[in-house]
Write a structure and sequence with these properties.
By secondary structure, the chain is α+β, with helices and mostly antiparallel strands. It has one domain (23-178). The chain is 28% helix and 21% strand. The chain contains four helices and six strands; from the N terminus they run H-E-E-E-H-H-E-E-H-E. A six-stranded antiparallel β-sheet has the order 1-2-3-5-4-6, covered by helices on one side. A hairpin with a 6-residue loop joins strand 4 and strand 5 (126-134). Helix 2 packs antiparallel against helix 4. The longest helix is centred in the first third of the chain and has 18 residues, at 2-19. Residues 1-19 form the signal peptide.
Length: 181
C-alpha cells in the first residue's frame, strides 16, 4: 500500500515539474508554426524575448533629421511623445490578462514582467513588441505562444497619436510592467 501511495505521489510530482518547464534558460531561437522568436539572456539573466523579425530591439531611438540619440527625461521634465488618451491603458492590460490561462495566472501570481512596444512615429501603430523577465521568474515557464498572442493582439488593437516631437523620432519606445490578473 505504501508503494502505491509513494508511486502516486511521484507521478503528481513529475507532472508538476513538467508543468514548470523553464523555456528560457539560455540564448536561443524558437521556430514555431509561422513565426520565429529570439530569446537573449545576457550575464545578468534578464530574458529579452522578441519576434525575430523585429528591427528596433537593440536600436537607439534617434531624431530622424539629425541622427542624434533621443534621451527621455534628459532635463528631468519629461518630453511628451504621445498624445494623451483614455483607452489604451485598460486595453493593453486586458490583452495581457486574457493571454494567460487560469493555471498560468496562478503560477505567476505576485510577479510582473515588462512589455515593450516600439511605436511607429509616423502612424502611431505598434510595429514591434518585446518582453523582459528574469530567467528564474515564473514567466520563464510560459510558452512562446502566449507571448506571441500578446504581441499580435497589441499590434492589432493598440495605436497612438504621436506628438510633434514624437514624429521626429525613428520610433517611439513605450513600456510597462504588469502582473497578469
Amino acid at each position: 500500500m505504501k508503494t502505491l501511495i509513494v508511486s502516486i505521489c511521484i507521478l503528481f510530482y513529475v507532472a508538476y515539474l513538467h508543468a514548470q518547464t523553464n523555456y528560457y534558460t539560455t540564448t536561443k531561437t524558437f521556430n514555431e508554426s509561422g513565426y520565429t522568436y529570439q530569446c537573449d539572456i545576457p550575464p545578468y539573466n534578464l530574458v529579452t524575448l522578441y519576434n525575430k523579425s523585429n528591427k528596433w530591439i537593440y536600436v537607439h531611438s534617434i531624431y530622424k533629421d539629425t541622427g542624434k540619440n533621443f534621451v527621455q527625461d534628459e532635463a528631468g521634465d519629461g518630453i511628451k511623445l504621445l498624445e494623451s488618451d483614455t483607452w489604451t491603458r485598460s486595453k493593453r492590460f486586458s490583452i495581457v490578462n486574457s493571454a494567460f490561462s487560469a493555471s498560468e495566472k496562478q503560477r505567476i501570481k505576485g510577479h510582473d514582467f515588462n512589455i515593450i512596444m516600439y511605436i511607429n512615429s509616423s502612424t502611431g501603430k505598434v510595429d514591434e513588441v518585446s518582453f523582459e523577465f528574469h530567467k528564474s521568474d515564473p514567466f520563464a515557464t510560459i510558452p512562446v505562444s502566449v507571448y506571441r498572442k500578446i504581441e499580435t493582439e497589441i499590434k492589432k488593437h493598440i495605436w497612438y497619436t504621436p506628438t510633434t516631437v514624437g514624429k521626429k523620432l525613428n520610433y517611439i519606445f513605450y513600456w510597462w510592467a504588469q502582473e497578469p490578473k
